[in-house]
Amino acid sequence: MQINQGGTAGGGLNLKKYFLSKNLKKDLPASIVVFLVALPLCLGIALASGAPLFAGILTGIIGGVVVGIFSGSQLSVAGPAAGLTVIVLNAITKLGSYETFLLAVMIAGALQILLGIIKAGTIANYFPSPVIEGMLAAIGIILIMKQFPHAVGYDADFEGDEGFSENGEGNNTFSGIMSAVGKINYGAVIIAGVSLLILIYWPKIKKVAMVPAPLLVVLSGIALSALFAGTGFALQEKQMVNLPMVNNSGEFFALFKSPNFAAITNKEVWITAFTIAVVASLETLLSLEAVDKIDPIKRISPTNRELVAQGAGNLVSGLLGGLPMTAVIVRSSANVNAGARTKVSAVFHGLMLLLSLLFIPKLINQIPLSCLAAILLMTGYKLARIGLFKHMWHKGLDQFIPFVVTIVAVVLTDLLIGVGIGMMVGIFYILRTNLRNPYFYQITTKGDKKTITLRLAEEVSFLNKAAIQVTLTSLPKGSDVIIDGSNSRFIDPDVLEIIHNYKHNAYTKGIIVQLIDVKDKYDVPPLKELVYKL
């Protein structure tokens, strides 16, 4: 049964019920944290994508409000994704204009809605658990490595980048850290240090813990930045949040852009749309699965509904001039760690992005990136905690190795490539286990006569063919062999052929074969059930 905290059945939003519930005191502070984390990420991703900075903020607003309302996930947060920056940058260049690109975003949204309707989201059910756990830990490690330069006051890479390679020219995460060490701003270091202390110790003081620690971090960061002004510790403009300034309603509405619908027959538009739809959907499903793993209430998010919600978000984003979006694990994990309980946190964070742009851009631009980096450093530490590695080690090598391979692959490549490598290793161990367990083997002895019983598994696929054939051919001469299929709901035709051929030829070795409930033919089970068993 799905648990809906502060919502209606199926994940809907009942605001009246919500405001009367106990979730408000958890969701409102969490929304502030997500807002603070999302703001520089939206700007950084827009900058790296070659799009207007406003497009990044607009995408965050739509991801929070539109996707938040339609989504069935209570903790996932959508917005512009780092994994799409290269695709977006190349597409804008190739299509010739940003307006033509917006049409591709709208078409991608429609394709995602179609994917949700045909229930393509069920693919998320087949992501191995060690791979998802490894992805979470990898994101934690990436956050720590990527935010370290911001914490010490220097980062040539854009805020929000999750890939190993940086800025071309052979730069990567490690070289970025080394460059940051050589260009430390001690004012930023002090702000980051104070911020970390507040994040660690403030929640332990019960009398004041009701004031969110991240909010205090931001206020102290603004105060320290003002204090350092005019000294050797002063922060530079690039070390602060850089929100676009809007002076009046005319300037605000002038920031919106409309798609070039005349390009609907352009083949490249459709290729771009299909690419965005597939990549964004995969990243969304991975993030959704990961968020469900760290949800303290252990709710299960409806994946098909999420694809529809993301599609609606991309339709609106493309129509108004925004970027393509996905469910984003960085924002979502920050939401979970901040104590959110319902989707209202995501919706509120979108509204806060809008209000900050309209009413307090000057105040927002006084926030040092180093204090926001501290918040993400804490989030990264919680995702990649030592206890998780110990837990996976105790679960056995077949779980630990895919977990570690996924971590290394995601850290050294990017999210989708790394998870793909982890999936291959995870599937190898699933198949290996399956090959070793097609039957239960028992030997009983009565005098000089041996009776060997092979009790077949519930599902015996073609992958078990080699193991069963090797076992049958190695049985000792003169034995009685019982092949028991009473527990089997499906036996692959290739395996049945081996069993019947063995029975036919076994007399040459003095072996008597008895078949129990082994049919001549089995109905093929539904693909979903068979894949699950594999």
TrEMBL record:
GO terms for cellular component: membrane. Keywords: Membrane, Transmembrane, Transmembrane helix. It comes from the Bacteria. Pfam families: Sulfate_transp. The chain crosses the membrane at residues 28-47, 53-70, 101-118, 130-148, 184-202, 214-235, 269-291, 312-330, 342-360, 367-388, 400-431. It is a multi-pass membrane protein. Residues 441-534 form the STAS domain. This is SulP family inorganic anion transporter. The keyword Kinase does not apply. InterPro entries: SLC26A/SulP_dom, SLC26A/SulP_fam, STAS_dom. The keyword Transit peptide does not apply. One of its GO terms (biological process) is transmembrane transport. It is found in: Membrane.
